[in-house]
Design brief:
136 residues, mainly alpha, 5 helices
Length: 136
């Protein structure tokens, strides 16, 4: 009888630890922090830029109908972090008030992105990411 009670208490403590770990994971996900996210990515805009600059993992099977050009992404996570931070700073420095939807003002931001990226396709792709972020 005592063994059964002791086993139940042990299992209850393990379950409580499990629930705490789930709660911590939920908090990180709600804050937008995945495990391994660099501390410098402290805003949603920086994380969005970083995630769109990371190299994409190769598909595990060849039966996927869509394939992406791996050259569209930065080669290393360190370079992606540096580039994301530079892009974030550039956009924050040049963005005019009320720039969304006004082509001339959007071009100011695209020019700042181009000055760093030197690739029109990358600028167009990342501009959509910037435009979707409310912090810019």
């Amino acid at each position: 009888m005592q063994a059964i009670i002791a086993q139940r208490k042990t299992e209850a403590l393990k379950y409580e630890e499990y629930l705490h770990s789930i709660a911590a994971l939920i908090q990180r996900l709600q804050a937008g922090h995945a495990p391994g996210t660099p501390a410098a990515l402290d805003t949603p805009g920086k994380r969005a830029l970083y995630n769109n600059l990371l190299p994409k993992a190769a598909p595990e099977s060849d039966d996927t109908p869509v394939s992406e050009d791996p050259e569209a992404y930065v080669a290393t996570t360190g370079a992606a972090l540096d580039l994301a931070l530079r892009l974030d700073e550039a956009v924050k420095q040049v963005r005019p008030d009320g720039w969304r939807g006004i082509q001339a003002r959007e071009q100011v931001i695209k020019r700042a992105l181009y000055d760093i990226l030197r690739d029109v396709a990358q600028v167009e792709r990342l501009f959509l990411v910037v435009k979707a972020q409310t912090e810019y």
